[in-house]
User: Which sequence fits this backbone?
């Protein structure tokens, strides 16, 4: 059930615009569209967004992922690496771009997760900040790392260990990336270098923030001088950052607060500058055929995120999911995905494979961070369950939810 709209007319307008946001262009092309959105997780099996290549004789997988998070061929409307996997294994895959932000996705399937029932997915890719909560609630199935030998051999140090999953048996990283800033080089050539530049008068009503509260508040805290990696920060620092969001909403500076669908607002020129995820901007420019949007690592630094494969307990495709994960840890496959999504690949051998596929991208620090870039990327500490609950409620209240 949708949350009631807030009384404040400005916040009401922002929320209404977010709710009217169109479905992703790609989902419409695939035919999943509104039907899948209305049916919810329980009805997704009837709304396949794939073309059948594998005959399914070796089983099937239902995979949920983020928009723009797998190599895609605009001409054939297919996912080349996924098609190859299906052809090689005869495992059929239903692929859904159903994740716009972590919390709204989990909200759709939370009851099934809690009861250990079928969620409509055999594997999904959510951020580690969400995976940690599912691990705490014992709602995920363990991976058998012996069935994913490529991950054991190829996983880069940046993503190899998590405090909530030190041996990566509950989650296996799929991609990593940076939360930073973006601006339209044509509409706002002045550009932005730091978060506070988003509050310039000429950008009033043309700014977006991210609905992932840790990403939005993390960037603000970095500019406020907070060490987001350490344990020294807490409620005071969070609320100081949240006050900035509240203030800019109240003065009409912010147009929208969204998940992945913020890219549509950039394309439609509703937003001139804002917060973003690094790989999205590369894809937008690729589709435009020129660098219209510029990704910026703020002067105070960017935060890193890791999105990982996770299996709900009720999956019936345990072995097939392992084959899928192992396949995406093959360096050549990982390079093909990275060439399209342009996020940080977790596969060590992907750089050498990329050097043969696209030498220019092999030197791109947004995909393969160099020492200089690494110094400006910060991994925000994991929140406790209590902090996560408090901060999420506070963030949603500011947004009017």
Assistant:
């Amino acid at each position: 059930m949708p949350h009631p709209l807030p009384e404040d007319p400005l916040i009401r307008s922002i929320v209404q615009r977010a709710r009217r946001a169109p479905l992703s262009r790609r989902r419409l092309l695939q035919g999943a569209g509104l039907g899948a959105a209305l049916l919810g997780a329980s009805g997704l099996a009837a709304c396949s967004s794939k073309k059948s290549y594998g005959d399914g004789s070796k089983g099937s997988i239902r995979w949920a992922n983020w928009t723009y998070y797998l190599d895609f061929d605009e001409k054939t409307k297919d996912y080349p690496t996924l098609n190859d996997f299906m052809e090689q294994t005869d495992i059929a895959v239903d692929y859904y771009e159903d994740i716009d932000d972590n919390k709204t996705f989990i909200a759709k399937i939370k009851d099934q997760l809690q009861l250990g029932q079928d969620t409509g997915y055999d594997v999904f890719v959510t951020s580690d900040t969400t995976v940690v909560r599912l691990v705490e609630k014992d709602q995920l199935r363990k991976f058998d790392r012996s069935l994913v030998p490529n991950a054991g051999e190829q996983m880069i140090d940046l993503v190899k260990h998590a405090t909530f999953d030190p041996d990566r048996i509950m989650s296996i990283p799929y991609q990593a990336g940076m939360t930073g800033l973006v601006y339209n080089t044509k509409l706002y050539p002045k550009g932005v270098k730091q978060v506070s530049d988003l509050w310039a008068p000429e950008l009033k009503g043309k700014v977006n923030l991210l609905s992932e509260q840790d990403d939005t508040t993390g960037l603000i805290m970095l500019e406020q001088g907070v060490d987001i990696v350490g344990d020294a920060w807490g409620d005071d620092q969070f609320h100081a950052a949240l006050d900035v969001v509240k203030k800019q909403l109240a003065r009409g500076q912010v147009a929208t607060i969204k998940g992945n669908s913020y890219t549509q607002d950039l394309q439609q020129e509703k937003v001139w500058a804002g917060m973003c995820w690094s790989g999205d901007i590369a894809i937008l420019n690729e589709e435009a055929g020129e660098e219209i949007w510029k990704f910026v690592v703020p002067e105070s630094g960017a935060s890193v995120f890791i999105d990982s494969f996770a299996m709900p307990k009720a999956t019936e495709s345990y072995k097939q999911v392992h084959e899928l994960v192992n396949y995406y840890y093959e360096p050549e496959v990982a390079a093909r995905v990275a060439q399209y999504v342009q996020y940080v690949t977790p596969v060590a051998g992907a750089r050498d494979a990329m050097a043969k596929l696209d030498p220019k991208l092999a030197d791109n620090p947004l995909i393969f961070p160099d020492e200089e870039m690494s110094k400006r990327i910060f991994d925000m500490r994991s929140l406790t369950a209590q902090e996560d609950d408090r901060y999420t409620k506070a963030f949603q209240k500011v947004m009017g939810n």
User: Anything to note?
Assistant: Confidence is low (pLDDT under 50) at residues 1-52. The CA atoms of residues 156 and 346 lie 5 Å apart. The radius of gyration is 20 Å. The longest helix spans residues 235-250.
